[in-house]
Design goal:
Distance between the termini: 61 Å
CATH superfamily: Endonuclease Chain A
Number of strands: 9
Strand order of the largest sheet: 2-1-8-7-6-3-4-5-9
Order of helices and strands: EEHEHEHEEEHEHHE
CATH class: Alpha Beta
Shape: globular
Radius of gyration: 18 Å
Structural class: alpha+beta
CATH topology: Endonuclease, Chain A
Number of helices: 6
CATH architecture: 2-Layer Sandwich
Largest sheet: 9 strands, mixed
Length: 209
């Protein structure tokens, strides 16, 4: 079933109540452990964004599956944290960073398995607020739909990686590598709000009559 949700619990045409519910459907309820490849791409990422799914990724990979995470990275903007990348690497996820300021704005999640492809397109980043607090819209495209539209995650990732962008691939064995300089430290620094969380207040001053 194709589902569309606006969370937190604003609207849903199905049983899912938001992005986390859709991801649970793609990575847990409608997924066989160890089958195929899990994918996520997000411009922003922090530790709380992945709390629900770290064990899911690890169990999937330990059972023979694979997973790729693509995040935005920057030396000047706090886009993705060291903590989320470290935890994903500990789970066995292949993490890639795109070093182009604000260029990675797509938020897409899903899987490619022996049964087909699931695609979730969302406005929600892989952050705590993006997953559950902000007002975000998410669309779940099931395997029949992606088959009919000719979508495959393998083709998408291949096209993505073939772009002439600055890609970095952090590892746990070398914390001094340039990739880690593109990540911010959640513990040492106050987290900067992403675009969807920013609020601007405009004050207009005038003479009192």
């Amino acid at each position: 079933m194709i589902e569309f949700t606006i969370h937190p619990q604003v609207y849903s045409n199905g049983s899912s109540k938001g992005l986390i519910s859709l991801l649970e459907r793609a990575w847990v309820r409608e997924h066989r452990l160890g089958d195929g490849h899990m994918v996520l791409m997000s411009g922003f990422g922090n530790y709380n964004g992945g709390v629900r799914f770290y064990d899911v990724f690890k169990n999937h990979i330990d059972s023979g599956g694979t997973a790729t995470a693509i995040f935005g990275g920057s030396t000047s903007q706090r886009l993705t944290s060291k903590e989320v990348v470290e935890q994903m690497l500990k789970c066995g996820v292949d993490v890639r960073l795109v070093n182009r300021k604000r260029i990675l704005h797509a938020k897409c999640y899903g899987s490619e398995t022996s049964q087909g492809n699931i695609l979730i397109v969302s406005s929600g980043n892989f952050t705590g607020p993006g997953m559950s607090q902000n007002i975000e819209g998410s669309l779940f495209l099931d395997r029949d739909t992606t088959r009919n539209m000719g979508f495959r995650w393998s083709d998408t990732l291949s096209a993505f990686m073939n772009q002439k962008w600055d890609y970095y691939r952090p590892t746990l064995s070398d914390r001094s590598a340039p990739a880690w300089k593109l990540l911010f430290d959640e513990i040492k620094q106050e987290v900067t709000l992403d675009d969807s969380e920013d609020v601007t207040m405009l004050l207009v001053l005038s003479h009192a009559q």
